[in-house]
Amino acid sequence: MSLLDYFRVSRRNSAAIAKERLQILVAHERAERSKPSYLPMMQKELLEVVQKYVNVDQNAITINVEQDDRHEILELNILLPEDQLQPRKAGRG
Amino acid sequence: MSLLDYFRVSRRNSAAIAKERLQILVAHERAERSKPSYLPMMQKELLEVVQKYVNVDQNAITINVEQDDRHEILELNILLPEDQLQPRKAGRG
Fold it and tell me: Which domain holds residue B77?
């Protein structure tokens, strides 16, 4: 299964709503578990990068962390405001 | 299927190698296709953030982009060098 398949399947319900959405995943696959995680710190800086490109409402961010023995996954879901979706009148074709 | 499941399944083969790996995915779910993508620009800055936390060899980065009508997915796979994995002698128990 490709990643694209994953997003197609898992986001199928939201497709009908036609919202603009940005999802950032940081998956750290570790050789050992005991080391401290830097993902929480990295999370803040990654969001700062995103905010340079899109106008993000802090309330529109959902953060999820999953982990097991070997993986730590940070998931940032950002629902983008509609007012910046400025549809391009000049279509492509 | 959870994201953690996705990574467990898709990375099963690499588990035996016990490498440290960081994967960053940026998935943009768009309401319309015609708008320009900012993911290529964002990619560079996201990598700069990562490099503050881990020592990344440019040759150890694999970049993949997938897209369909509604999704654009940027995937950065970073194999972390073993010399920074400093195993902690003092185990957790």
Answer: 21-83
Domain count, chain B: 1
Which chain A residues are Cβ-neighbours of B30 within 8 angstroms? 20
CA angle B31, B34, B40 (to 5 degrees): 95
What are the beta bridge partners of residue A62?
A: A77
Q: What is the pLDDT of residues A6-53, one digit of tens each?
A: 766 665 554 445 578 888 988 888 776 666 778 888 888 999 998 898
Q: What tens digit of pLDDT does each residue of B48-80 get?
A: 998 898 888 888 899 998 888 788 888 999 988
CA distance B77 to chain A (A): 9
Q: How many pairs of residues across A and B have Cβ atoms under 8 Å apart?
A: 139
Question: Does residue B15 form part of some domain?
Answer: no
The residues, any chain, with a CB within 8 Å of residue A65's CB and separated by 6 or more, are A39, A72, A73, A74, A75
Residue B26 lies in a domain: yes
ipTM: 0.70
Q: Does a structural domain hold residue A4?
A: no
- Alpha-carbon Rg for chain A, nearest whole angstrom, is 16
In a domain, A11, yes or no: no
